[in-house]
Amino acid sequence: MSAPTLDPPVAPPPAAARNRLRWFAENPLVTVCTAVVLLVLVGSFALPLPYDPEGVDATAVLQPPSATHLMGTDQNGSDVFSRVVAAGRTDLTLAIVATLVATTAGVVAGLLASKRNRVAGAVMNVLDLVQSFPLLLFSVILVSLAGNNLGAVVAAIVVIGFPSITRLVRSEALVVRELRYVEVAESIGVSSARTTFRHVLPNVAGVITAQFGIMLGRSLMIIATLAFIGVGVTAPTPSWGAMVRAGANVIGNGVWWVAVFPGLAVVLVMFCVNLAADGVQRSLGRQR
Amino acid sequence: MTRDLGDSYFTDVPVAEELMSRAASSLTLVVPAIVLGVLVGVGAGTLAAFHSGGRTDRIVNGAISLGQSVPEFLIGVLLIYVFFALLGWAPPATGQLDFTSVPPPVVTGSALIDGLLAGQWSTVGVALSHLVLPVATLVVALAPELAKTTRASVTEALQHPSVEFHRANGMPTASIVRSVVAQARTPVITYIGIIVAVLAGGSAVVELLFNWNGVGSWALGATTQLDIPAIQAVVLVYGGLSLLVYLSLEVLVTTLDPRLSFGAGPRLRRARAVAKGPTV
Amino acid sequence: MSTAEIGSPWLEIRDLRVRYDAADGPVHAVVGVDLTVARGEVLGVVGESGCGKSSLARAVVGLLPGNAAVTGGRVRVGAHDLSAASPARWRELRRTELAYMPQHSAAALDPLRRVGRQFADVLRAANGRVSADEVHRVSSELLEAAGLRDVPRVLRAYPHELSGGMAQRIALCVALARRPSVLVADEPTSGLDLTVLRKVMEMLRQRCRSEGMAVVMVTHNIGAVAQYCNRVAVMYGGAVVESGPVSSVLGDPRHPYTRALLGALPRRGEPLALLPGVARVSRDGAPGCPFRHRCPVGAADPGLGEGCANEPTTLRMVADDHAVAGLCAHGDALEREAS
User: Fold this and answer.
1) In this complex, which of C50, C221, C264 lies closest to A8 when CB atoms are compared?
2) Is the pLDDT of residue B135 over 90?
3) pTM
4) Beta-strand pair C68-77/C80-81
């Protein structure tokens, strides 16, 4: 006798994907964090700058925070507040551009490499090798050799970042490709490109979103660290990393404001980006 | 084509000599940092996983989120401000020794080891005190990501059906914990391997910030000055070190886990994708 | 332990209650279950998903998840009352007397230990020092009885080198190695093909006969119950609605739910009789027949509804050892109709 079984009633599919607004309401942490990051971004462009961020004032060197200089002044007498805001423009724009390029490159490469063939395997092995190199030094060399410009910074971040995105998208896409409806699509003769972009891509979108956030954080970290070392965004253009470096030279004397305010700006953005990415990942985990 | 690494453009000293004279001082910093960072990170991650959902878990999670958001250089700057400028407990960021201390005869290049070799105990004390902040910086920078990897890995192991089966068989708690640890260790060991590979050539940022005369800050200086022989040497040596570490890692992991075969099994690959590696 | 004779009551469950604290309020998964299993007997527990049978199984061996607790009733194994057992006592009992096979037991083996080691682990946990020869003898015997070929190779193998069916049978053998007097198995038959299923069940029956082991087998597979169990308990909504000897309950079902359940078995030439509605869980633990919301007899005769909502769900004997829940007026109504 065969084994008759009593199957559980089928649960309705999660409605979260259908209603984006409701998704944001159900994930307040992600919503708040995304809002803060956007606010910082808009603020860095919209806030009025009380002083010229690159201006030098020999009469007001290393002044502590006060009503005239909200965050004090640095060794050149420049207003730290103006510089923190202006640095946000450069750093955030750079991070977003680099992340967009890296994510796009990673997603396309990951989807292409998710077809099972030998070329894909070889590509992944090469990417593994790239990833195993000490990343910071790699980017310093890259940016230094390329002439220390912002384009080189973006290129360095893309080269560093896209292998991990490629790997993740590929592994997710491999799972989706095994699913019944993709098999069905292939069996009724849907073209490979159409299957990839109509069926596989939407199903890895959530993972890509989370990865975008993680990559944004990594980009900002790399930009700030490079600037701290003195590569990439260089003086007199303000950047958070370079400002902390300048502050590090005087912090031993108890002058904290030059380093701490730009440092806090990095931490605020990083914290919100990380929490949002974590939240998206957790929400994806719940859906499975 | 010669078999050495060439001479530096700027100092005319053979690059190999430049590297060797700084290796010990970098390792003096990196080795204790990795040991402590692993203890803190793995310990906190394991605790959080075993108390999933409880207060310990929430505290560790909060610390991880915050720790991941603070750049390494800022950790160092803040530590210098608090422990040197405000409290005066730590020495200034003047490298391995104070300006006033008598350096021991150079044998390895590490003031601590050379001091020990020469028996200059006061120098050893100064060298030790100069280690505290840079090591602490590295530990705070390393621990969060490691704790996160450990927590995820132990949580997954705790959910494996074999854990319940062990309990169903009345196995003692100690052997259940041992089984969980054994199942969780592959990704954690992989991640530690990545940290070792990245830090094998010294930590550039921390050396720069603390004026530490090590391989990392030297490589950084050579690179930004476009000292081509030095850059070539750095690429060669660092690439070689990474390959060596990854090869040993693969051997170690495949011996520990019978499910993996040499040439990176699926588990290791996934672990490598998840552990995205420290930025620095 | 061997003093009690085969056939004497061994595992006794009285008015057992289990509650889960779910995120959206409490769930009463088991609401007063009475069951007895004698030495050497195999009891099948059947019912649809969510009827509380897995919670019952876990409660008996003290392995409820963290958000669940036994809120009332007693479990007794031989002379041991398990109601007030400390965690250490539970561990000790599981190490020796109680065995539990979780669902999907093919994945239950430790992935990083060879099969032989896992036998050694449980035997040494139960009996202290056990020689390697003894471990080898006991495990080989069990594995052969379970129909595994090339036993020496199996003992050296890691779980990932085995097929799912093999791993499932090996896990059962590991659980039986310490000669437990009670085995609670959650879905032990799923995933096994029919010849293997037969082997496994015959091995279990053999163990029951020779050592007086009492088996509780939670399953969806009514066919296996009919073939291999002595007695059967039908669960619905956290309560046993009917229990008794297999021939009596399956041959002459009294409770409307049992009839619906058996009606849903596929038979050649007949359409499947499906029961409308979905099973619900009890959120308040209130008395009353849990099946009243879906009962076809109740729907046909609304006058009965009052009694069904208020009667407590105690069992009542209708034939030799054959019990039906409550005063089940419906069952009686059906009876009257028939006569």
Assistant:
1) C50
2) yes
3) 0.82
4) antiparallel
